[in-house]
Amino acid sequence: MNDDSDVDLAVVGSGGAAMAAAITARQAGRSVVLIERGVLGGTCVNIGCVPSKTLLAAAGTRHGALNNPFDGAPTSAGTVDLGALVRQKDELIERLRGAKYAAVATAYGFEVISGQGSFLDRDTLAVDGQALRARAYVVATGSEPVVPALPGLDSVDWLTSTTAMELDEVPESIVVIGGGYVGLEQAQLFAHLGAKVSLVGRVAPHAEPELAEGLRRVFSEDGIDVIEEHAVSVAAEGGQVVVRTASGAVARGARLLIAVGRSARTDGLGLAAAGIDLDERGFIRTDAFQRTTNHRVYAAGDVSGAPQYVYVAAATGRVAARNALARTAGAPDAQVDYTGLPAVVFTSPQLASAGMSEQEALGQGYTCACRVLDLSDVPRALVNRDTRGVVKVVADATTGRVLGAHALAGGAGEIMLAATYAIRAGMTVDDVADTWAPYLTMAESLRIAAGLFRNEMPTSCCA
User: Fold this and answer.
1) How do the residues of the chain divide into helix, strand and coil, expressed in percent and rounded to 5?
2) How, if at all, do strands 225-227 and 196-200 pair?
3) Helix or strand or coil: residue 32?
4) What is the distance between the alpha carbons of residues 43 and 16, in angstroms, rounded to a whole number?
5) Contact status, residue 49 vs residue 72, Cβ threshold 8 Å
């Protein structure tokens, strides 16, 4: 360690990647400081995963009451007090911020400094102008919503997923631009709260086509109007927001929500002064070891262009810290293994995946075999009286090894843990089909789908 270094590791940010980096360094007995210019906790706990999923759970409860399939157990649902739901959401955020971030920092013994971190040169970071020298640095500042260059956007009071979750009243109608995971979740959230929703954009563009088609049907049943085209302009007309597409299709609503992706949050960091390059998308350029073009500085989480999931952020944070602190002992060697990476879109039913899609498997040179199981063949779905969805398994036709699993189903995200284990363990479809699965669980669908590779004839309920 240099004699003039103030700390072993300085981490800019305080979300999942930053906390994982700090914890890893402290577990190694190193001194750490976190620098956060905003609210402790980053995107996930404050404006991302936690608030959106608790509001989706509330909206889903209401929607379930209105669409109860059990005639003998009647339910009902009234109007929504969105202000009360938002206050409940904020209370949860406050509690988790304290328990999972502030208390954790105290327990591990690292300081969180409030201020803007900015590099003065390749070796020195300043916090609100005061120099701080560390043996190594990790930048983990996250991402923020992309604002597209849409003509007319400045003429309307548009929302992002962040500001939409601060509303205290459900809008009568809303147009959502963007068919990715944020757009899908927000569209269904407001539809289930009682708003008239229009979605402009391709539905689930990265999902398996069988699953995306199933989700289109679900959205239609939910009363969501879907225009699978690119928006080309926005205007305020007659007290409403009007979105037009290239074909001339029009979507109208009282409010507009923009959900077309997220970009790296790099403003104010002084990256150029530190010799840190950005890639063509504007994310910090890193190698397989999370090392930037300044080998004293590492980057982790969304800002590094990694897949935008909090568990990926944490994994990259751990790798970044290990490699950053090992840099004087030799070449860094820790890397994130993305094999079997799971993903979940928290629509109802959920849209989830693990590992490769069919197209990705073909692109990597595999001779691909796939089977698709309709939920009408899954006992759990039958007893739930909700057979909307499918399960798809992607396998290597030569070896039978499971390459990917995909599901549109209630609890699809829970299925993906078993799928991830199967993929990482190199299990074949026969292995999965012959592995115990508890009856009347949605996870059993993975075993049933794997069994289709050797027998596509109908089976008995539990045979």
Assistant:
1) 35, 25, 40
2) parallel
3) strand
4) 8
5) no
For the four alpha carbons of 173, 176, 182 and 187, in that order, the dihedral sign comes to positive
Pairing of strands 130-139, 297-299: parallel
Q: For residue 439, give every residue at least 6 positions away whose Cβ sits within 8 Å of its Cβ, in sequence order, or none.
A: 379, 462
pTM: 0.94
In this prediction, residue 99 carries a pLDDT of 96
Give per-10-residue mean pLDDT for the chain (463 aa).
Answer: 78 97 97 96 93 96 96 94 97 96 96 97 96 97 95 96 96 97 98 98 97 98 97 96 97 98 97 98 97 97 97 98 80 90 98 98 97 96 96 98 98 97 98 96 96 84 68
In 356-455 the beta strands, taken as DSSP E runs, fall at: 368-374, 390-396, 402-409
Q: Is the peptide bond before 74 cis (omega within 30 degrees of 0)?
A: no
If one counts every other C-beta atom within 10 angstroms of the C-beta of residue 364, the result is 10
Residue 251's nearest CA partner among 239, 243, 259 is 243
Tell me how far apart the alpha carbons of residues 432 and 97 are, in angstroms, rounded to a whole number.
Answer: 39
Tokens coding 277: 């390059």
What CA–CA distance (Å, rounded) separates 305 from 382?
41
CA-based nearest residue to 255, from 194, 179, 176: 176
